[in-house]
């Protein structure tokens, strides 16, 4: 395989963008993590990305030859009613939230009958070229409101007279993203010692 893909399914577009659903009461939840601790926090709570999931894909060639990334296809492995779990916001109330515009950014609605990636405004679409010395990073925002969706990506590549498809998932498991409408929502105040219903924190 002349190309590799490293998927980070627990990247955050900004400190305020990410939420997770968990089948646990607020009293049983740890404080929200920093982004680098998100994967461990999710695993500890059996949590699921809520409302949207932000993926960072690092695509790199394995040799000196140029590999053309022809496209990414969204594949749905399962679709159910959204999870009836509690919704936890990762942001601390009152903390500023910033986000940058990425040059390889795409969006997909998992509510669609046939979800497909579309470049964010101002971004180019496939194909792109990569090599061992010239990797690319793609950012994907997958949104959903009406379902609990298992999904993965297929990356199509070509290099010279060779071509193929590479499955991109969460270490052998599908990505999972669930709608969160109407779910009890919680936030963790700065200086607080536990989760409280979202919107009840008074800012100084």
Descriptive report:
- By secondary structure, this protein is mainly β.
- The chain has one domain.
- Helix content is 4%, strand content 43%.
- It has 1 helix and 15 strands.
- Strands 2, 3, 5, 6, 9, 11, 12, 13, 14 and 15 form a 10-stranded mixed β-sheet that branches. Strands 1-4-10-7-8 form a 5-stranded mixed β-sheet, with no helix packed on it.
Topology:
Elements: E1 3-8, E2 19-22, H1 38-45, E3 48-50, E4 52-61, E5 67-80, E6 86-89, E7 105-109, E8 118-119, E9 128-130, E10 136-143, E11 148-159, E12 162-168, E13 175-178, E14 185-187, E15 196-197
Parallel strand pairs: 3-13, 6-14, 7-10
Antiparallel strand pairs: 1-4, 2-3, 2-6, 4-10, 5-9, 5-11, 7-8, 11-12, 11-13, 14-15
Helical percentage: under 10%
- Strand content range: 35-45%
Counting DSSP H or I runs of 4 or more residues, the number of helices is 1
Global structural class: mainly beta
End-to-end distance: 56 Å
* Major sheet characteristics: 10 strands, mixed
- Uncertain segments are none
Summed up:
The chain starts with a strand and ends in a 7-residue tail after the last strand. The model has no long low-confidence stretch (mean pLDDT 92).
Q: What would the keywords be for this entry?
A:
15 strands; 4% helix; ten-stranded mixed beta sheet; mainly beta; five-stranded mixed beta sheet; 204 residues; 1 helix
